[in-house]
Amino acid sequence: MTLVDKLSLHGGAEHLALMTATRLDAERFESFFCVSRWPPPPSEVAVEAQNAALARLEAAGTRFIPLGRKRKLELAPWRRLAMFLRRERIDVLHTHKFGSNVWGALVGSAVRVPVLLAHEHTWSYEGNPVRRVLDRELIARRADRFIAVSRADRRRMTDVEGISPDRTIFIPNGIPPSPTPSGRDVRAELGIEQDAPVVGAIGVLRAQKAHHVLLRAAAQLVGDHPTLAVLIAGEGPERAALEALARELGIARNVRLLGFREDVADVLQALDVAVSCSDFEGSPLAVMEYMDAARGIVATAVGGVPDLIEDGTHGLLVAPRDSFALAGAIASLLSDPERARRMGARAQARRRTEFDIDTLVRRLEDLYVELLEQRRAQRRRRRRGS
Asked: pTM value?
């Protein structure tokens, strides 16, 4: 069983959990996908995306288990989960992100699920002592393995949280091949000249993604590139603040907040440079999508991004929150499109060989079986000893 907080095709961790649960080998695994917050609050409903996710589960033969949780400390949904785990005799409970990791550790261990796996996707809590304690004393002690999506995150689990290294494992993320672009001309759709420089980002509009740094970098670039267009595809709570900042910087005519886009492959084809300017990341799927599209990439050197992008080889890395460095890196690729093309080609080749969704799923399948066999061997030894 895979346990997540929300059903989503857009959030990185939630989407990755859905992709892995629906790609497990059906001849070896019976897959269940449990969502604690379902149905979602009306304010969060994106009906088409929710329906598409449900259709994907159905097509894969993955059973959907909604818990109906509405409040943070509501206990009834977790009792339902415990009953289901017992009734179906679940062998492996694989949880994703902090909240599900906590509840999965509590409920899974209470009903003695043989194998518990906790998966952390983004590191952002060095200053949260309660979370550090829960990660170390609850999740890491009860889970058979605590999965990190980057080498940096695994180091922090040991150095910052004090978790024993033998309880953690690094498994890099992966994505499927991107859809073939439809040929739709996004530049023409948005009224952008074909020879205008276009930079952009794909991602939820939340504070972590630091899109304001991209806007400040763009304000420094428009002097040399007056026709510069900045495209940001995604939706979220920072939208109004970003619109206000674009007006304040005098670049509102250069910036287009596109909202949710189903045609991400087409949007990426419109970009000369794809940007990730996050304050922190795990192993960002958006950067992998940039790589797969063979775009010139500029990204902040945070979390697992250096695992994906070798600076100067697959793209350019800069420090977070440094709009001057970000602007300089973008300008260097805009001024040398052949260099950007070469980096993009190398990034594409690396994504397809090292960060593929099927590679990730096979690693998880092997881990499930390995840990389950270890647990069964322990039980056999205990029975012989008694």
From this structure: 0.88
Name which residue leads in pLDDT, 39 or 158: 158
Mean pLDDT score across all residues of the chain: 94
**Closest Cα partner for 212 from 237, 243, 233, 254?**
243
Q: How far apart are the first and last CA of the chain?
A: 31
What are residue 124's phi and psi, to 5 degrees? -150, 20
CA distance 343 to 223: 26
Beta bridge partners of 298: 275, 316
Percentage of residues of the chain with pLDDT beyond 90: 87
Q: Would you state the pLDDT for residue 382?
A: 85
Query: Which pLDDT belongs to residue 207?
Result: 95
**What are the φ/ψ torsions at residue 348 (nearest 5 degrees)?**
-60, -45
Taking the C-alpha atoms of residue 1 and residue 62, their distance in angstroms, rounded to an integer, is 10
Which token pair is 268? Answer: 């990426």
Torsion of CA 316, 322, 269, 180, to 10 degrees: 70
CA pair distance 46, 53, nearest whole angstrom: 11
| Torsional sign, CA 72, 77, 83, 86 | negative
Give start and end residues of each alpha helix (H) in 233-336.
Answer: 239-249, 264-269, 285-292, 305-308, 323-335
